Amino acid sequence: AQSVSQHNHHVILSEAASLELGCNYSYGGTVNLFWYVQYPGQHLQLLLKYFSGDPLVKGIKGFEAEFIKSKFSFNLRKPSVQWSDTAEYFCAVNAGNDYKLSFGAGTTVTVRA
Amino acid sequence: DGGITQSPKYLFRKEGQNVTLSCEQNLNHDAMYWYRQDPGQGLRLIYYSQIVNDFQKGDIAEGYSVSREKKESFPLTVTSAQKNPTAFYLCASLGTARIYGYTFGSGTRLTVV
Fold it and tell me: How many CB atoms lie under 10 A from the CB of residue A68?
Protein backbone atom coordinates (compact mmCIF):
# COMPACT_ATOMS: atom_id res chain seq x y z
CA ALA A 1 0.00 0.00 0.00
CA GLN A 2 1.20 3.47 -0.76
CA SER A 3 1.99 5.95 2.00
CA VAL A 4 2.74 9.65 1.93
CA SER A 5 5.09 11.57 4.23
CA GLN A 6 5.10 15.32 4.70
CA HIS A 7 8.20 16.39 6.57
CA ASN A 8 7.04 19.58 8.20
CA HIS A 9 4.08 19.75 10.52
CA HIS A 10 4.06 23.54 10.90
CA VAL A 11 5.98 26.18 8.98
CA ILE A 12 6.05 29.83 10.00
CA LEU A 13 7.53 32.45 7.71
CA SER A 14 7.31 36.11 6.80
CA GLU A 15 5.77 37.62 3.70
CA ALA A 16 8.04 37.54 0.64
CA ALA A 17 9.98 34.57 2.01
CA SER A 18 10.35 31.47 -0.14
CA LEU A 19 8.43 28.34 0.72
CA GLU A 20 9.27 24.70 0.14
CA LEU A 21 7.20 21.85 1.54
CA GLY A 22 8.51 18.33 1.34
CA CYS A 23 6.52 15.29 0.24
CA ASN A 24 7.74 11.73 -0.18
CA TYR A 25 5.75 8.66 -1.11
CA SER A 26 6.39 4.95 -0.92
CA TYR A 27 5.26 3.26 -4.11
CA GLY A 28 7.52 1.94 -6.80
CA GLY A 29 5.22 2.04 -9.78
CA THR A 30 3.51 4.74 -11.76
CA VAL A 31 1.98 7.42 -9.59
CA ASN A 32 -0.26 10.42 -9.93
CA LEU A 33 0.65 13.23 -7.54
CA PHE A 34 -1.37 16.09 -6.12
CA TRP A 35 -1.06 19.05 -3.81
CA TYR A 36 -4.22 20.35 -2.18
CA VAL A 37 -4.70 23.45 -0.05
CA GLN A 38 -7.27 24.11 2.64
CA TYR A 39 -7.69 27.74 3.63
CA PRO A 40 -9.19 28.44 7.06
CA GLY A 41 -12.89 27.57 7.01
CA GLN A 42 -12.85 26.48 3.39
CA HIS A 43 -12.90 23.18 1.55
CA LEU A 44 -9.97 21.45 -0.12
CA GLN A 45 -8.81 22.97 -3.37
CA LEU A 46 -6.46 21.48 -5.93
CA LEU A 47 -3.23 23.46 -6.25
CA LEU A 48 -1.57 21.33 -8.88
CA LYS A 49 -1.20 17.78 -10.13
CA TYR A 50 1.25 15.59 -11.95
CA PHE A 51 0.25 12.70 -14.18
CA SER A 52 3.03 12.52 -16.75
CA GLY A 53 5.33 14.68 -18.87
CA ASP A 54 7.35 17.63 -17.58
CA PRO A 55 8.26 16.86 -13.95
CA LEU A 56 8.09 20.55 -13.08
CA VAL A 57 4.43 21.35 -12.64
CA LYS A 58 2.99 24.82 -12.31
CA GLY A 59 -0.23 25.35 -10.42
CA ILE A 60 -2.48 28.12 -9.28
CA LYS A 61 -1.50 31.10 -7.11
CA GLY A 62 2.17 30.93 -8.15
CA PHE A 63 2.86 27.48 -6.74
CA GLU A 64 4.93 24.86 -8.47
CA ALA A 65 6.10 21.34 -7.65
CA GLU A 66 8.85 19.11 -8.93
CA PHE A 67 8.50 15.36 -9.33
CA ILE A 68 11.81 13.58 -8.74
CA LYS A 69 11.18 9.94 -9.44
CA SER A 70 14.53 8.73 -8.12
CA LYS A 71 13.81 10.36 -4.76
CA PHE A 72 10.10 9.46 -4.66
CA SER A 73 9.47 13.13 -3.97
CA PHE A 74 7.03 15.81 -5.05
CA ASN A 75 8.02 18.99 -3.20
CA LEU A 76 5.91 22.11 -3.37
CA ARG A 77 7.50 25.54 -3.82
CA LYS A 78 6.57 29.19 -3.98
CA PRO A 79 9.26 31.86 -4.46
CA SER A 80 7.55 34.59 -2.48
CA VAL A 81 4.64 33.93 -0.12
CA GLN A 82 1.85 36.27 0.83
CA TRP A 83 -0.19 36.51 4.00
CA SER A 84 -3.09 34.94 2.08
CA ASP A 85 -1.07 31.74 1.64
CA THR A 86 -1.73 30.90 5.29
CA ALA A 87 -3.41 27.51 5.03
CA GLU A 88 -2.96 23.79 5.44
CA TYR A 89 -1.29 21.98 2.56
CA PHE A 90 -1.74 18.32 1.75
CA CYS A 91 0.26 16.10 -0.56
CA ALA A 92 -1.65 13.16 -2.06
CA VAL A 93 -0.71 10.15 -4.15
CA ASN A 94 -2.72 7.88 -6.36
CA ALA A 95 -0.89 4.76 -7.52
CA GLY A 96 -1.28 3.96 -11.21
CA ASN A 97 -4.82 2.92 -12.00
CA ASP A 98 -5.79 2.50 -8.35
CA TYR A 99 -8.85 4.47 -7.34
CA LYS A 100 -7.53 5.18 -3.86
CA LEU A 101 -6.03 8.59 -3.08
CA SER A 102 -3.70 8.59 -0.08
CA PHE A 103 -2.90 11.81 1.80
CA GLY A 104 -0.02 12.98 3.89
CA ALA A 105 -0.62 14.35 7.38
CA GLY A 106 -0.58 17.94 6.11
CA THR A 107 1.60 20.97 6.75
CA THR A 108 0.21 24.09 8.35
CA VAL A 109 1.76 27.21 6.86
CA THR A 110 1.50 30.48 8.74
CA VAL A 111 2.65 33.61 6.93
CA ARG A 112 3.26 36.64 9.11
CA ALA A 113 2.64 40.06 7.63
CA ASP B 1 -22.88 24.61 -11.11
CA GLY B 2 -21.63 21.06 -10.80
CA GLY B 3 -20.24 19.95 -7.52
CA ILE B 4 -20.54 17.92 -4.35
CA THR B 5 -23.02 18.75 -1.63
CA GLN B 6 -22.52 17.49 1.88
CA SER B 7 -25.15 17.92 4.53
CA PRO B 8 -25.49 18.90 7.23
CA LYS B 9 -22.50 21.17 7.80
CA TYR B 10 -22.57 20.58 11.56
CA LEU B 11 -23.99 17.51 13.27
CA PHE B 12 -24.28 16.60 16.91
CA ARG B 13 -24.86 13.05 18.06
CA LYS B 14 -25.41 11.46 21.42
CA GLU B 15 -23.22 8.55 22.35
CA GLY B 16 -24.71 5.24 21.28
CA GLN B 17 -26.63 6.67 18.33
CA ASN B 18 -26.08 6.00 14.66
CA VAL B 19 -25.97 9.01 12.34
CA THR B 20 -25.93 9.31 8.55
CA LEU B 21 -23.98 11.93 6.62
CA SER B 22 -25.21 12.85 3.18
CA CYS B 23 -23.08 13.27 0.06
CA GLU B 24 -24.59 14.10 -3.32
CA GLN B 25 -22.79 14.93 -6.58
CA ASN B 26 -24.09 16.18 -9.91
CA LEU B 27 -20.81 15.75 -11.77
CA ASN B 28 -21.72 12.36 -13.24
CA HIS B 29 -18.62 10.95 -11.57
CA ASP B 30 -18.34 7.19 -11.20
CA ALA B 31 -16.13 7.01 -8.11
CA MET B 32 -16.94 8.47 -4.70
CA TYR B 33 -15.00 8.55 -1.45
CA TRP B 34 -15.34 9.28 2.24
CA TYR B 35 -12.43 10.66 4.23
CA ARG B 36 -12.04 11.56 7.87
CA GLN B 37 -9.86 14.56 8.77
CA ASP B 38 -8.28 14.89 12.21
CA PRO B 39 -5.70 17.49 13.26
CA GLY B 40 -2.17 16.30 12.55
CA GLN B 41 -3.32 13.15 10.76
CA GLY B 42 -4.33 14.45 7.38
CA LEU B 43 -7.16 12.73 5.56
CA ARG B 44 -7.75 9.04 6.08
CA LEU B 45 -9.85 6.98 3.71
CA ILE B 46 -12.94 5.36 5.23
CA TYR B 47 -14.76 3.84 2.24
CA TYR B 48 -14.80 4.31 -1.50
CA SER B 49 -17.00 3.22 -4.36
CA GLN B 50 -15.99 2.86 -7.99
CA ILE B 51 -19.44 2.06 -9.36
CA VAL B 52 -23.04 1.82 -8.23
CA ASN B 53 -23.82 -1.07 -5.87
CA ASP B 54 -20.16 -1.65 -5.14
CA PHE B 55 -17.85 -0.24 -2.46
CA GLN B 56 -14.60 -1.10 -0.72
CA LYS B 57 -13.19 -0.51 2.74
CA GLY B 58 -10.52 2.08 3.11
CA ASP B 59 -7.91 2.31 5.83
CA ILE B 60 -10.24 3.05 8.75
CA ALA B 61 -13.61 1.43 7.91
CA GLU B 62 -14.36 -0.01 11.35
CA GLY B 63 -17.47 1.54 12.86
CA TYR B 64 -18.69 2.97 9.56
CA SER B 65 -21.01 1.75 6.80
CA VAL B 66 -21.95 3.05 3.35
CA SER B 67 -24.31 2.37 0.47
CA ARG B 68 -24.21 3.26 -3.21
CA GLU B 69 -27.67 2.71 -4.62
CA LYS B 70 -27.47 5.68 -6.99
CA LYS B 71 -24.55 7.09 -8.94
CA GLU B 72 -25.01 10.55 -7.47
CA SER B 73 -25.34 9.57 -3.81
CA PHE B 74 -22.91 7.98 -1.31
CA PRO B 75 -24.20 8.31 2.27
CA LEU B 76 -21.97 7.43 5.23
CA THR B 77 -23.38 6.03 8.47
CA VAL B 78 -21.33 6.49 11.60
CA THR B 79 -22.42 3.69 13.89
CA SER B 80 -22.27 3.41 17.65
CA ALA B 81 -19.35 1.00 17.18
CA GLN B 82 -17.09 3.86 16.08
CA LYS B 83 -15.09 4.60 19.23
CA ASN B 84 -14.00 8.13 18.40
CA PRO B 85 -16.46 9.59 15.89
CA THR B 86 -15.91 13.30 16.56
CA ALA B 87 -14.15 14.53 13.41
CA PHE B 88 -14.48 16.40 10.15
CA TYR B 89 -15.79 14.21 7.32
CA LEU B 90 -15.09 14.91 3.67
CA CYS B 91 -16.73 13.39 0.62
CA ALA B 92 -15.00 13.35 -2.76
CA SER B 93 -15.64 12.14 -6.28
CA LEU B 94 -13.59 11.27 -9.33
CA GLY B 95 -14.68 11.16 -12.94
CA THR B 96 -13.54 8.94 -15.78
CA ALA B 97 -11.20 11.69 -16.95
CA ARG B 98 -8.97 11.25 -13.93
CA ILE B 99 -6.53 13.88 -15.07
CA TYR B 100 -8.95 16.50 -13.80
CA GLY B 101 -8.40 15.26 -10.27
CA TYR B 102 -10.70 14.65 -7.36
CA THR B 103 -13.47 17.03 -6.34
CA PHE B 104 -14.19 17.54 -2.65
CA GLY B 105 -17.28 18.63 -0.78
CA SER B 106 -17.24 21.26 1.94
CA GLY B 107 -17.42 18.69 4.73
CA THR B 108 -19.52 17.78 7.76
CA ARG B 109 -18.25 18.35 11.27
CA LEU B 110 -19.59 15.65 13.57
CA THR B 111 -19.48 16.11 17.32
CA VAL B 112 -20.49 13.46 19.83
CA VAL B 113 -22.03 14.96 22.93
Answer: 11
